[in-house]
Amino acid sequence: MLNQTVIVGRLVRDPELIETEKGKKVTNITLAVPRSYKNVSGEYDTDFISCVLWQGIAENTTEYCKKGDLVGIKGRIQSRSIEQEDDYPKRVMEVIAEKVTFLSSKK
């Protein structure tokens, strides 16, 4: 079996570093990824993909990237359940980053 993905997109907001109760550092980011084809209206739709970055990858991305920067992410897709107030779990799909490449050039 193989669970591997590569995504290139722009950061929707500035990354923020969070420390968990167990002391691990994590950053949750969202990438805006335009589709490669036009919809029926003749426009390109954009997908917003949630990504989770841990430890050193999270620290570096938070330090060197900001909203609008172009990044590449190699990782795996993971699903998890979130408990909601109505007791029905919501399934969430996200990319767990194994490598982040900064693709924006400094001005």
Q: How is this fold's topology laid out?
A:
Layout: E1 5-11, E2 18-19, E3 25-38, E4 44-54, H1 55-64, E5 70-82, E6 90-102
Parallel strand pairs: 4-6
Antiparallel strand pairs: 1-3, 1-5, 2-3, 3-4, 5-6
Structure write-up:
The protein is globular, with a radius of gyration of 15 Å. Strand 2 and strand 3 form a beta hairpin. It has 107 residues and is mainly beta. Strands 1-3-4-6-5 form a 5-stranded mixed β-barrel. The mean pLDDT is 92. It contains 1 helix and 6 strands; from the N terminus they run ββββαββ. It has one domain: Beta Barrel (OB fold (Dihydrolipoamide Acetyltransferase, E2P)).
Total helical segments = 1
Percent of sequence in beta strands = over 45%
CATH architecture: Beta Barrel
Domain count: the total is 1
- At CATH level 3, the topology is OB fold (Dihydrolipoamide Acetyltransferase, E2P)
Multimeric state: single chain
Fourth CATH level, the homologous superfamily: Nucleic acid-binding proteins
Structure summary, number of beta strands: 6
Mean pLDDT, as a whole number?
92
Largest sheet: 5 strands, mixed, barrel
Given helix and strand content, the structural type is mainly beta
Helical proportion, percent range: under 10%
* End-to-end CA span: 42 Å
* Cross-sheet strand order for the largest sheet: 1-3-4-6-5
User: Are there runs of 5+ residues with pLDDT below 50, and where?
Assistant: none
Question: What is the CATH first-level class name?
Answer: Mainly Beta
Please compute the radius of gyration using only Cα atoms.
15 Å
